[in-house]
Amino acid sequence: MALADHLRGFPDLPPLWTLGTMAMSALLARLLPAADLGAAGRVLGALEVAFALGLIAWAALPFLRLRTPIEPHHRPTALITGGPYAFTRNPIYLGLMGLALGYALWLGPLAATLPVAALAYVLDRRFAAPEEALLIDAFGAEGRAYVDRVGRWA
After folding, report:
1. Does 117 fall in a domain?
2. Mean pLDDT of the chain
3. Residue 72, Cβ neighbours under 10 Å: how many?
4. How far apart are CA 78 and CA 28, in angstroms?
5. Which of 11, 16, 51, 108 lies 20 to 30 angstroms, CA to CA, from 98?
6. CA 56/CA 89 separation, integer angstroms
7. CA 63 to CA 134: how far, in whole Å?
């Protein structure tokens, strides 16, 4: 049976991709412990995790308030342009990348940061790009104007 068959029905959600990234970071930290950042990495990592969690929470609140789907690949019912969305179209994804990066820094070895680049690629291609098309489809000229005015990653 092919891998795709095993994964059919598995929830394709950015937080799960983030957890997988963090698991890979932990594995790389064990396998390639050289170039350890030590205490500085733990402090920087903890600060980054705190900042990322704050950004995720700030960015999630409008979805709850406006009762629009937060899940990827669902048609939005409200165009959110305030708060962190005034600066980037994807603050939750930026927060997830920050969370993964902070964890990798906290682990110490620089090799632990490598999977974060793969997460950035997955979030960009698998989630952010298709969501832009959904915004434009759902909100027409207003959605296009938002996509043109606010950067994907700031």
Report:
1. yes
2. 95
3. 17
4. 41
5. 11
6. 13
7. 16
Residue 26 covered by a domain: yes
**Which pLDDT score, from 0 to 100, does residue 154 have?**
81
What per-residue confidence (pLDDT) applies to 4?
59
- 100 neighbors 21 (Cβ within 8 angstroms): yes
- What is the rounded distance in angstroms from the CA atom of residue 110 to the CA atom of residue 128? 27
Instruction: Specify the residue for token string 């970071």.
Output: 25
Assess whether pLDDT exceeds 90 at residue 21.
yes
Question: What's the domain range around 61?
Answer: 13-149
- In this predicted structure, what is the pLDDT of residue 11? 86
1 vs 79, which has greater pLDDT?
Answer: 79
CA quadruple 51, 52, 56, 57: dihedral sign: negative
The answer to whether the CB of 89 falls within 8 A of the CB of 152 is yes
Task: Answer whether residue 3 is part of any domain.
Answer: no
Domain count, the chain: 1
Q: Is residue 7 part of a domain?
A: no
Phi, psi angles (nearest 5°) of residue 78: -145, 140
CA 111 to chain centre: 20
